[in-house]
């Protein structure tokens, strides 16, 4: 069973997840970099065509999302937030289906991948991550449990923003549907503390479904 802190002991219990395996994570038409495959050469089922590189989950990615949802079946989140990209929404829906009580998804374009929001530099990506984290901390009621489903590269900036580490100090690695959990609370001197519970945790997946 998932161990949870009691609400009176924390300000925010935040779980950050990367989406499941998408068609953007595997070779396409033999090309190991799917985003370089011209749009007119991509099979019709691999992306939505709403925006460029809006990849669907692969069948394996859908399984990963369902395993993630089963893992959290006994955890009632107060909010589930995901980016507007299809791979993040489908992963979030995998969790939503298994929640112990009905919950709506909140789509937030601010948590999209690094290149998908009109930002071009690491400084801009980090500034966006800081905005997201500050909004989550400041706008959530004390004791809220929130799940955010985002993307591999941007999750690294979000983790730096949550933990207060310099953005260029090191890189975080996120496997598909990995779980990163941070609890925010205040110490005896009323200083805000971010406590990392686990990082890149894929223990909810059987070994044959683990992908990077």
How many DSSP helices? 4
Structural class: alpha/beta
Query: What is the number of beta strands?
Result: 6
Uncertain runs are: 1-8
* Strand numbers in spatial order across the main sheet: 3-2-4-1-5-6
Order of helices and strands: EHEHEHEHEE
Shape: globular
Strand residue content: 15-25%
Tell me the radius of gyration: 17 Å
Structural account:
This protein has about 210 residues and is an alpha/beta fold. It is about 25% helix and about 20% strand. It is built from four helices and six strands, in the order βαβαβαβαββ. It has a six-stranded mixed beta sheet, with helices on both faces. A hairpin with a 5-residue loop joins β5 and β6. α1 runs parallel beside α2. The two termini are about 25 Å apart. The N terminus is likely disordered.
Notable characteristics:
212 residues; alpha/beta; six-stranded mixed β-sheet; 4 helices; 6 strands; globular
Short overview:
The protein is α/β, with parallel strands linked by helices and 212 residues long.
Give the SSE map.
Layout (H helix, E strand, L loop, with lengths): L11 E7 L40 H13 L7 E4 L3 H11 L8 E3 L14 H18 L4 E7 L1 H12 L15 E8 L5 E10 L11
Parallel strand pairs: 1-4, 2-3, 2-4
Antiparallel strand pairs: 1-5, 5-6
Helix pairs in contact: 1-2, 3-4
